[in-house]
Amino acid sequence: MISNLHIKNIGIIDDIEINFNNGFNVLTGETGAGKTLIIDALKIIAGGRFSKEMIRTGETHSLVEACIFFPESTDAEDGNIIISREVFANGRNTCKVNGRLVTVSELKEIMQDMMDIHGQADNQKLMDVANHIQFLDNFFSDKISLLKIEYAKMYEEYCHITEDLNHNLGDDIQKQRMLDLLNYQLNEIEAAHLVIGEEDELESKRKILLNSEKISQNLNEIKQELNDNALDSLDKTVKYLSKIESFSDEYHEKLERVQELYYELEDVATQMSDLQENVEFDQELSNTIEKRLDVIFSLKRKYGNSIEEILRYQESLVSQIEEIENKEEYIKMQKEKLTILTKEMRNIALQMNEARKESCSVLEEKINQELFELEMKNAKFSVCLTLEDSFNKNGLNKVEFLVSTNIGDGLKPLTKIASGGEISRIMLAIKVVLSDIDNTPIMIFDEIDTGISGIAAMSVSSKIKNMARNHQIICVTHLAVVAAKADHHYYIKKEITLDRTKTIVKLLSEEEAISEIARISSGEITKIALQHAQALRSMNIGA
Q1: Distance of alpha carbon 141 from alpha carbon 124, whole angstroms
Q2: Which one of 63, 91, 190, 508 counts the least CB within 10 Å of its CB?
Q3: What does the domain layout of the chain look like in residue ranges?
Q4: The overall pTM is greater than 0.85
Q5: pLDDT tens, 250-269?
Q6: Which CATH number fits domain 1-114+440-508: 3.20.20.370, 3.40.50.300, 1.10.472.20, 3.40.190.10?
Q7: Rg (Cα) of the chain, in Å, rounded?
Q8: Mapped to the 3 state alphabet, what secondary structure does 446-485 carry?
Q9: Does residue 381 sit in helix, strand or coil?
């Protein structure tokens, strides 16, 4: 239940707190006092849409906070959950659950198990056809719950196998196209006979060829310098040292070192001569190198940034081709498994279909009885149960609630009902029947009695009162007979302070509640109106 609701800066609401109670809570008051804004605040805290135009004039943000006792929730602390949502004029939105930041979608998911808000054109669950099958199954859950659990396991495996086959198989044309592409890529790489390191070697040879003339000139100069100058000087040095080597061991050592230098330099000179002779521009070799580098560049552009990466990609191609070619047996096994699973699923789905057929007739009977008691004696409620060709998470069934409101009218979807009063009573009838199996603890009705009066209004008030035995009801009403059934009566009014209008909420005493019921019933509080209100209250209190 909602124990406390705090609203700040929404419409004419400045800053109010409402302490709600268990049972039947009624909100009444003059038109434009803020009753609908309170319901809007509850929709906001439930993750509904919010327009920045709702922010109170002159303020930069609005805030809605609620303390909800819901021990079944994993988010509850000591059974309580503190929900808050703050919206700023710049569009920024902050949602929190027990101080933990959540997204609006997460907030909506959390709140949908705790609160159901129903207005004249708004129902979070019943107006969504996707939920109809769940309502039907919940109505007789003992007959179908075990079948649904068994089916759910199979359906999960069914989806897994189907996805696996779609991913690994595709159609034969797609498979052959993939093999053709992989084989083409593999053949292109294999035909190149790539060798790790060859690109660097080719680039080096290419660089020498492109600079062959310059290299040859410099090598020739080096050869001349070595032969004409360096070697000649070292030869003379050897001769001079030979003449004095016998005079000192140090001279002898130097002679040996110079001789070693001479022989080393002589060898270098010979090598330089060989290099110089081998350096010449070879057009055919240059063309060969360019073509080879072009092949490597083309493969790098397609399959990797280096020869190493290309060769790794080649290995992956081999693996992929083997995987596809070897999957025939695996795919065959999966198809056989799917065939068996489909047969078992269909069997359970048909059992669920039969159970739902039985549930449909009972649910129709109960809701039609409720409609009769709500003064819709010519209305007919029907459950359209169809058997589909393809599996879904609920089996093979699709369920939609249909209604006919007048004799001779055909059955139509709930969303096609035109009269606001008829919609209100149909929705209430469905909610009354399903309320015993609906685990949503908080039910909010925004002027559900619109377009209803007389005996129908009396019946509506009794139905809501009965629902309050198992749910916390928060209801905005304009009918005295509905207000008279309330366990707790809140009066909403507006007052002007410092040239600004704001909403005031007051929990009425028994005497004040009777006066408000009198005002609602006759428009003014007279002695006769008070007597009538007292009679309504005496008749309805505790009923």
Answers
A1: 21
A2: 91
A3: 1-114+440-508, 176-319
A4: no
A5: 888 888 888 888 888 888 87
A6: 3.40.50.300
A7: 45
A8: ECCCCCCCHHHHHHHHHHHHHHCCCCEEEEECCCHHHHCC
A9: strand
